[in-house]
Design a protein that fits this description.
methyltransferase, 159 residues, 5 helices, Alpha/beta_knot_MTases, 5 strands, Alpha/beta knot
Length: 159
């Protein structure tokens, strides 16, 4: 299985980089993982809705260029479906059983994802109605992917 994570924004904090490295290492036995970091567009203070829309669209274009044609795209979106860890594991396993082996998870920038990315997504997933920094969210996503593989394999995991 191939998993790509496309994330807008670079990790700056050492502790987040270390967490990403740790989960990337753990995932090696379950999948081929590729993490693509895209530059985020600077949002001026007091940006107008039109400026915010333009920023999301520009980031969206960069995301679209990074998505492989044959990939099943999962957009991380506040309006997406919320799943438990067990349901997420079943979703991955069921999708794989149906022949899907290339998954691309998309984490937007601080303003979220453009409508074009939402439309391109095959599935929209929401972790919580809370808002998280996109850099931290990358770690959270990797942890849940790792947990999902542990559940699929019938291996112990912390409930």
């Amino acid at each position: 299985m191939n998993i790509t994570i496309i994330s807008v924004g670079k990790l700056k904090e050492k502790y987040l980089k270390q967490a990403v490295e740790e989960y990337s290492k753990r995932l090696q036995r379950y999948c081929k993982l590729d993490i693509i970091e895209l530059n985020d567009e600077k949002t001026p203070d007091n940006a107008s809705p039109k400026e915010e829309q333009q920023i999301k669209e520009k980031e969206g274009q960069a995301i679209l260029k990074a998505i492989k044609d044959n990939s099943f795209v999962i957009a991380l979106d506040l309006k997406g479906k919320m799943l438990s860890s067990e349901e997420f594991a079943s979703f991955i396993q069921d999708s794989n059983t149906r022949g899907i082996s290339n998954f691309t998870f998309v984490i937007g920038g601080s303003l979220g994802l453009s409508q074009e990315i939402i439309n391109r997504a095959n599935y929209k997933l929401c972790f919580s109605k809370m808002t998280f920094p996109h850099q931290l969210f990358r770690v959270m996503l990797l942890e849940q992917i790792y947990r999902g593989f542990r559940i699929i394999g019938g291996e112990p995991y912390h409930k």
